[in-house]
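Colleagues,

For the teaching module next term, I've prepared a clean inverse folding example: a structure given as tokens, and then the sequence designed for it. I'd like students to try predicting residues themselves before seeing the answer, so please don't circulate the second half yet.
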């Protein structure tokens, strides 16, 4: 049996553009893993089975897709141990699927090449290829076209999932974005993000990145008030992150926000 962590991610920045011909939106996003992770285990089996998380669809689909691409029967048993909150904008399902893909691929007599595995991951969701890469990445296109970033990793990440918050469907979030004309001046905003990234030399410089185009939360302002140098919604939300230079400030903010919902104090992960 092979086991591995399946880390969450935050979108440190997310700029969104117009609808593409494939009915996805053009984006430019900064993707960063964090040290909050599910655990995924995969072993060879006489049939396909996924246990541990009744709501799973992505891991099963990933293993079926891998078997089809490799020309074999989907004879894998996977187990998921969930720690990442579900439907929070933290990419837990995509991370589980990518991790299961990687582990199952290693069990094949003739594993798929890395490029083939990335293409398969992209069919499962725009975030999936990121979890097969290493380090922070700049996602463009629909988010699955990746370029590595050299970003500081010496900060603390406080996550807040506000009490009672529920993620809207991705389609609904993007529908509202389109209705308000959020895609206007996308090229200028994307260029602004690229310029800000080029100027990052220390963690505090991440404060200059533009805010999330899709979602906002009053909790972000609270995090800034508690000492975060950057705070925003991750992806389409509802999870909110605050980045802190000092552990003491991050711990104090965690205590202050415990009444607002579920909180996690973590760090960047490679």
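(Answer key — instructors only)
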């Amino acid at each position: 049996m092979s086991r591995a962590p399946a880390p969450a991610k935050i979108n440190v920045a997310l700029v969104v553009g117009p609808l593409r011909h494939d009915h996805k939106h053009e984006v430019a996003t900064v993707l960063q893993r964090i040290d909050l992770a599910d655990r995924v285990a995969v072993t060879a089996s006489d049939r396909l089975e996924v246990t541990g998380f009744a709501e799973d669809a992505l891991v099963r689909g990933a293993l079926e897709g891998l078997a089809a691409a490799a020309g074999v029967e989907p004879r894998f048993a996977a187990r998921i141990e969930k720690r990442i909150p579900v439907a929070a904008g933290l990419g837990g399902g995509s991370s589980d699927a990518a991790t299961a893909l990687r582990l199952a691929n290693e069990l094949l007599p003739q594993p798929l090449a890395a490029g083939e595995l990335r293409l398969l991951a992209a069919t499962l969701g725009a975030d999936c290829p990121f979890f097969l890469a290493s380090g922070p990445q700049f996602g463009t296109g629909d988010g699955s076209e990746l370029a590595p970033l050299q970003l500081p990793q010496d900060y603390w990440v406080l996550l807040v999932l506000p009490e009672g918050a529920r993620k809207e469907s991705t389609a609904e979030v993007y529908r509202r974005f389109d209705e308000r004309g959020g895609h206007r001046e996308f090229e200028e905003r994307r260029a602004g993000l690229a310029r800000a990234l080029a100027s990052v030399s220390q963690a505090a410089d991440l404060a200059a990145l533009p805010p999330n185009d899709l979602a906002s939360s009053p909790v972000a302002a609270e995090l800034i008030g508690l000492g975060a140098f950057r705070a925003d919604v991750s992806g389409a939300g509802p999870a909110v992150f605050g980045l802190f230079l000092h552990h003491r400030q991050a711990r104090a903010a965690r205590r202050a926000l415990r009444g607002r919902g579920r909180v996690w104090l973590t760090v960047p992960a490679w």
